[in-house]
Design a protein that fits this description.
The structure is a homodimer. Chain A is α/β, with parallel strands linked by helices and about 475 residues long. In chain A, about 40% of the residues lie in helices and about 15% in strands. Chain A is built from 19 helices and 19 strands. In chain A, helix 4 runs parallel beside helix 5, helix 12 packs parallel to helix 19 and helix 13 packs antiparallel against helix 15.
């Protein structure tokens, strides 16, 4: 492990944190503080020079007028004050031996030339003290294992997902969207303007981090393209990137958001393609692809079987597979014969895509039998299943996976987390046997078994395509 | 109004229905029957020749061994039996003076050559009696105004949406998906193999139907391309089409689904473009575009203002606008000055896209002020708003619309219908003030006011693009 890894790893293993910008009247500093409290972080101190009385507490946490008065080592500082106070805070932190400072405060390079100068000054001070900076204009770190956090009520459970985001709000939203799908994080990093530690540093870190199994990123621009290329070439984990600023309008917006230069979209496209980086275009796609790579199942061929109760989506799913460079599997005669025993004679189809007909809505055993027969077919490498909504039949699929171990992507017409309150009594009685409350755990279990859930057939097909590519791209073949 | 219109309109105004295929042990016929019961359709009769006793009822509906024994006029028959009985039923219906038969039964043209022949025979018999056929292999009609239905528990409320679907299951799924968004139907038609009445007939009908304000379609193929072109040229209502079978694999699947020939995708593309047909690729996009055209607001220019609390999605939304041929509006100096009074100095952006910063999460008035200032700006033609999730601030938008009347598309990171049970207590406390149960009504109200909700920024931008095109495409300019 190199020095960047251990430096960042040290920050993630901070044992004490000092938060600047917490006040009696509340505000964003207090929100950040609540995040640490919710994660039960071991040693939290508030530093507020305007509070000079002793023994003051805010939200149950002791307040000190400066670091010196704490009298104990402080590993990490969080700075959430007006930007004009940041310089003095950085100096104080450097003098006190703080290892790193997360600068939540904004108003630097993304603002104007003066802001850029001020940011450079901060960097010089930090370097003098061999202290690392994260931000400015960022949320910092969330790491449930060690208790770091950037927002209240994030899950305390750890998971395989490492996330790097230039945008703080996306780190937040992804935290909550992931919660709904039962997806948990090893680390989530919002790094903002990146005057010191930046995208490449964190990518390198997560590439080596044993707790991180897959890496997802929201990116506006990177500073050192060559290093980025070397990293994606080297890292042997799935990398999913939501790269924005791909049009002039987007690039301009990125400029005023985090002061980023986005670069030529075509160049990015080539690099992503060449090194097997999976590209997504919005949060929904990001959630879709993350699920597919929580525990992807190795696959050597691209022959997909489509199973659908609804016949219409079966046709659309066939289109989606072909558009994603997948092949429709030709079922063995044996499988077809087996299917004939269960599938209704009319309004159905035994050839791929397998259309179970309306009957499947009322006869759950039909689905179970079809899953098993098709899943076991040696001509089938992967399955795309279209469901109206998730039913308890997911259990059959998980059980079947123990035996067949093939990538499965489910497209669901109606999101499983939708409240049953929104439905009429009939639908509640006929379809939803799964309470929304239980859905995150169920999706998590499916993901662990190589089954992912998608909002439409195109994303389900894209997920299967990406899994196939991941295991069959020569640049990434040594997994 | 021509004869096709009045023929189909007569069917929609049927006053009595006879259902074949209902049995004591249950099955799909009983499901169809329940649909009619739930809609409180006036005169329902069950015909089952195996039940010869008198005064028998199934599910509270009287059973007759044949039409003759009913002794009252029957306008419409629904045939849900094994295909081998269909011919005799058609003959009986013709002789009794039934106006139309919905053939739910499958096993005809989509099955094999023999099936095709059998279907032709049915058509000849029907023509002899001047009776119209819908199907085979279809669900038939849903029309809450007159009580026709094809599935239990569909809403009894009428709405502006006319839907035509080759696939029965998609008509069903759309019925329930629309329910979740508070969208209601004038008529929904599933026409299957279309041996008699087909896509063009229903398109022509809905084009003239005063209860239908917009037309959405799921289509595998049409039989008379020229007539289709003439219709889309003529019809002065928004038309949204989900055309499948666009790849060889999809075309093959469509063939075995409804016996359709899909035709060259490029030709379709040209026709759709030329005549302003809006194309969608899955159910999710369909729901997105329908919402945008429930009550689209006329617009002459394509200058969009993006408002986002989260900064990251603001950048991605700017990309999405540019990719959809929209322009980012340049706010007036006045608006910028006004915004400066409310928007936090740091971590935000006053130039379009307007980034309200993390502060907006905790300060709802910030959003309200920004909506008003930006919405009133004369340089702004349309608004794209990115929200983490729907909050009661939607009321401000509806109120603002009375004054500004501009198309507004909202992209929501977390679907509003998600059960709050899936969230942690903190999110429930901080974000969700809207109960999922209330969401369908709220979305309906927004749609009525030209505000649509989308699952991602690309679909929000596509919706705005389509609204602009709809009012500015010369072929469709005379609205």
């Amino acid at each position: 492990m190199n020095s960047i890894f251990s430096e960042i790893d040290d920050i993630f293993h901070s044992n004490s944190v000092a938060i600047y910008g917490v006040s009696r009247r509340g505000g964003l500093g207090n929100v950040l503080l609540q995040g640490f409290i919710d994660q039960d972080f071991p040693n939290i101190f508030i530093v507020n020079p305007t509070i000079t009385e002793s023994n003051v507490e805010i939200m149950g946490i002791p307040v000190y007028s400066d670091l010196e008065s704490i009298g104990e080592p402080v590993d990490l500082a969080i700075c959430s004050t007006h930007p004009k106070y940041v310089k003095d805070i950085i100096i104080e932190c450097g003098q006190y031996g703080v290892k790193a400072v997360v600068i939540f405060s904004a108003g630097f390079g993304e603002k104007d030339e003066e802001g850029k100068k001020a940011a450079n000054e901060l960097l010089k001070i930090a370097q003098k003290y061999q202290m690392r900076l994260i931000g400015p204009n960022c949320m910092g770190f969330y790491c449930p294992k060690t208790g770091l956090s950037f927002f209240p009520a994030l899950p305390i459970e750890s998971g395989p997902l490492g996330f790097i985001s230039q945008s703080g709000s996306i780190a937040n939203i992804l935290g909550f969207s992931a919660m709904l799908k039962g997806i948990h994080f090893s680390k989530s990093i919002s790094y903002g303007n990146a005057i010191d530690l930046g995208f490449n540093d964190f990518l390198e870190y997560l590439g080596d981090d044993p707790d991180t199994k897959l890496i997802a990123c929201y990116m506006e621009g990177v500073k050192d393209g060559r290093r980025f290329i070397n990293l994606v070439k080297k890292i042997k984990k799935p990398i999913i990137i939501w790269k924005v600023g791909v049009t002039p309008a987007g690039e301009k917006a990125a400029q005023s958001h985090t002061g980023s230069l986005c670069g030529d979209n075509k160049l990015w496209e080539i690099v992503f393609d060449q090194y097997g980086v999976m590209r997504v275009y919005n949060l929904e796609e990001m959630m879709s692809m993350i699920q597919a790579f929580i525990n992807p199942i190795p696959v050597q061929n691209r022959r997909v079987a489509i199973i659908s109760g609804p016949g219409g989506p079966a046709v659309s799913s066939a289109d989606a597979c072909e558009m994603n460079d997948l092949k429709l599997a030709e079922l063995t005669d044996e499988s077809k014969k087996e299917l004939q025993k269960f599938i209704p004679e009319f309004g159905s189809s035994m050839s791929n895509p397998i259309d179970l007909s309306l009957q499947s809505t009322f006869d759950p055993i039909l689905e179970k039998n079809a899953f098993e027969i098709v899943g076991r077919d040696p001509n089938v490498d992967m399955m795309l299943i279209y469901l109206t909504m998730l039913t308890p039949r997911y259990k059959d699929l998980i059980k079947l996976q123990e035996e067949i171990s093939k990538p499965i992507a489910i497209a669901c017409a109606i999101d499983s987390t939708v409240s049953s309150d929104c439905f009429s009594k009939y639908i509640k009685r006929s379809f939803i046997h799964i309470r929304a409350k239980k859905v995150p755990k169920i999706i998590n279990k499916m993901n662990q078994n190589g089954i992912s859930m998608h909002p439409n057939e195109q994303l389900a097909a894209k997920a299967l395509h990406n899994i196939f590519q991941y295991y069959n791209n020569s640049k990434k073949s040594n997994f």
